[in-house]
Specification:
The chain has 489 residues and is α/β, with parallel strands linked by helices. The protein is 36% helix and 17% strand. The chain is built from 14 helices and 13 strands. Helix 6 packs across helix 7. 42% of the residues are buried.
């Protein structure tokens, strides 16, 4: 297999893109009725991120221990100081990127930030609150309505007027008022950053605006809590009042429930109550949280459906109670409200897949040892959140392989169609390949795209963001989501 230049230089060598559409794995007990569709596309190999020595890697720079409550240890906590430096460094970089890629355009007017509320079980509070950044699609041209009412000069700003007939004495001016286009749907977005850094605005604004424009959807990006805390906001306030708050999964669930209950009526067609074109997208640790949130939603829907049917079960004729075809049809309807998930170089096994453990410090910009360090930090703090105090169980395989932390080990039936994207130079390649395989074996629709020479972040950040292969990776994710937006439930 060809490789790219190790010094970050452009490479004219040709690489391959493998598209499995769909990925269909057939159990050995079944007869093979079709051959999985695999297409291979040629594309120039992307350049590589310059290599950093082991002593400069995240896991070696960090303090040699894990604090379960960084926020309650005070400002002199070495771990908290280290995490804050990382977060601030990344935030400065993202703000510079925002100025270059967003403020230089007129797209900022399509961005709004608000705090949303949701109610559900799972974290000890009745009402959950989270901040989201909302990205609106641009207005469509020539989308007007005619109004004949008199309006003052202030109201005329930005509104075109034209005369119907200049020769008519009784001519009435026709005021053309620009109307917002009705979006095709709503996209829940969950950013990456190893649960340590990243945000829903400066880090991902240019990508979310692109999604909103290309797909004509409203993108809702979640500002979930980080291990490093945030500069300001709800997390820091509750940190001081109630102790360290780190509950990113519940915050993603809150955003998902808000989209289903409130956002659809606000952003989509209010007259069409059946309209529920929802899609979801997440990168890296964001893909991890998104998958866990979707599994939570599926389990909640199944549980509610069983409770509702329990009182009616005796009224169903016995010959239909065990009808497998009927059950399958009903189960498919559980995931129809969410049309698809776009999961880009995701984390799905916090115990560390073979490719992560074998990578060591070989990969850039993120290596296997960095990932394992992040996994331990995440699990330690989630463990504290769940009040599991056992030191022996804190990092053991049973805990990290629990489906509530590692979706690779969950029951993946009755899930929305998913696209898994990964590069061959990403230490998380086994996470994607294992997860896509299990997704298919559980009967859920799945596609997988593999990019030769692709590093962690291909198409979304780093030196490979705007390389030819990175652009193709991004385009295919948009094509996938757009294709499923057009499907009926």
């Amino acid at each position: 297999m060809s490789s790219s230049s190790p010094n970050g230089e452009a490479n004219s060598a040709e690489g391959r893109i493998w598209i499995h559409s769909p990925l269909e794995l057939i159990p050995c007990s079944s007869s093979i009725t079709s051959i999985p569709k695999v297409s291979i596309v040629r594309c120039p190999l992307p350049k590589k991120t310059p290599y950093s020595p082991p002593q400069d890697r995240l896991h070696n720079l960090a303090p040699p221990y894990f604090s379960l409550h960084p926020c309650t240890q005070g400002d002199d906590n070495p771990l908290q100081i280290f995490l804050n430096k990382i977060r601030q460094s990344k935030l400065d970089m993202y703000r510079s990127q925002y100025r270059e890629k967003v403020l230089a355009t007129e797209d900022e007017s399509r961005i709004e930030t608000r705090r949303i509320f949701g109610c559900s079980s799972g974290s000890g509070r009745d009402v959950h609150e989270v901040e989201v950044t909302i990205y609106h699609p641009p207005l469509k041209k020539n989308n007007h309505r005619i109004i004949n009412d008199e309006i003052d000069e202030n109201s005329r700003a930005g509104i075109e007027s034209e005369n119907n007939d200049d020769t008519s004495k009784n001519n009435t001016s026709k005021i053309l008022e620009t109307l917002p286009s009705i979006p095709r749907g709503i996209c829940l977005h969950v950013h990456g950053g190893g649960w340590l850094w990243g945000d829903s605005r400066y880090q991902v604004a240019h990508r979310c605006l692109e999604m909103a424009r290309v797909l004509n959807v409203v993108v809702v990006s979640v500002e979930y809590s980080l291990l490093a805390g945030r500069e300001e906001g709800l997390e820091q306030q509750q940190c001081k009042e109630d102790g360290f708050l780190f509950d990113p999964l519940q915050e993603v669930i809150t955003a998902m429930e808000w989209i289903e209950s409130c956002a659809s009526e606000e952003f989509l067609c209010p007259s069409d109550k059946s309209m529920s074109n929802f899609i979801a997208s997440g990168e890296s640790s964001g893909a991890h949280l998104l998958m866990l949130a979707m599994l939570h939603r599926r389990d909640r829907v199944l549980t509610n459906a069983r409770k509702e049917k329990q009182d009616l079960i005796t009224t169903i004729e016995p010959r239909y109670q065990n009808d497998s075809k009927k059950r399958i049809k009903e189960n498919k309807q559980l995931s129809s409200i969410w049309k698809c998930m776009n999961l880009v170089y995701g984390v799905f096994d916090l115990s560390g897949t073979p490719s992560v453990r074998a990578d060591g410090v070989a990969s850039m910009p993120l290596c296997g040892k960095d990932l394992l360090w992040m996994y331990r930090l995440y699990c330690a703090n989630i463990n504290a959140r769940r009040q599991e105090k056992s030191e022996d169980a804190k990092h053991d395989a049973c805990y990290t392989m629990n489906p509530s932390n590692s979706p690779l080990y969950a029951n993946l039936c009755n899930m929305p169609p998913a696209l898994f994207t990964i590069g061959t130079s990403d230490p998380l390649i086994d996470d994607t390949m294992f997860m896509a395989s299990r997704y298919s074996l559980c009967g859920s629709r799945v596609e997988m795209a593999i990019y030769e020479g692709g590093e962690h972040g291909i198409g979304h950040f780093g030196v490979q963001e705007d390389e030819e292969m990175g652009k193709r990776a991004r385009e295919y994710t948009l094509e996938f989501m757009g294709r499923h937006l057009g499907e009926s439930g």
